[in-house]
Amino acid sequence: MTSSAKILLGTSHLTAIAIGLVFSQADFISQEEEPPTIPPGTNRPAPSDQEHRDDHKDSSYRNDALRTHAAAWESLKDRSLPKKERLGVQSALLAEWSLMDLKAAVEAALAEADDDLLDGCEPGILNDPAMAWELARSGAFGWETAVFREKWISLVSKEDPIRIFEILDDVSLAERGRAVSAVGITWAELDAKASLKGEIWTRLAELGDRTDGGALRFEVASAIYHRITTEELESLISRNSSHQATQLLAATQALHALYAGEEEFSEVLAKIPAAMRGEFAVTGLRALNLESEHALPMAKIALQEGRLDAFSESHYHDPSLEDNFALWALGLPDDPGLIRVFQMAVEQSSWADFGKIVELVKSLPEGRKRDHGAVALVVATNSGAGELKNPDAIISLIKDPLIKATALAAWNAKEEE
Description:
66% of the residues lie in helices and 0% in strands. By secondary structure, the protein is mainly α.
């Protein structure tokens, strides 16, 4: 029995009573019309040999039922029912109405002030998820389509999680993140022996092959790391060897270790498998406050593994973090490898407050950081972060001939555009 059928069994009786009550008092039915003789929710007999006649009867019944539900819904607006009772009747009506005309039922629910009424449309969504998604994808409900889309994702991620992977390209990155996060929770809560668990895990791991795979992997790891034990995580690591699964597990283990406490983090960091070190560091830096004592060890691992993407993730473009990023990078040891992180920090931080970062670079003492900070300002200017009022003065701060040549070449390229 489908989920929608189970829900319907619990509501059809209430719906019949509710509609009967409404019809017994309603003045919206003309005297020439009679309510349907077949109450909503009643199972109709299977088609006979006279299919054309049955089709006509079915169509007539459906139209009558639709009119009945719509009229009952309108009538309820004039009834002085206690809120709890009214919501119960409305939800029951929506449960059956959504199976006959999902769009109309959703429109009725969205028109009400109570957002919980959309829950009543769940039977119709689950009855035909593909059709329901087409309503969401096409913007059928105007600006409120986003509310319906969230309902669809929340419901289908629990009841039909594999279907979520089919709609990821239809939504924004933020919605994608919430969708795969919801599937991750479903995976974590499934019984270990459930056949679907393995299929969901494979699909979650394969997200890493997408161009936005890093961001989605972080969302999944964030959803599952606190829902599995250390033993379960270690078991998964021992049983998964594919690159995609390894990266997802590395991200999950990083979060698991970070929030378990300093002692466990240090222990995990010391024995992290080579294939997982890069993703472990990327995830750790993304999740960490840059003031954390773990940030520098993570930064060093990321650099050792060639994962400069650890320092260019989208969260660093949050204006509330960008100044911290530049100041944090300024405090890194004056190391040839780490200096690259400082240059990236200056470039990205300049988008938040270009003038402030220019003054920061100008205030640095002569040396490697000032050289790289100056060339970073030229690169940032070329990218549109801001405009250098006196580029010669900035370039003159650079003492390393090779770095100065790089800055001059970048500036001349901008001038020639």
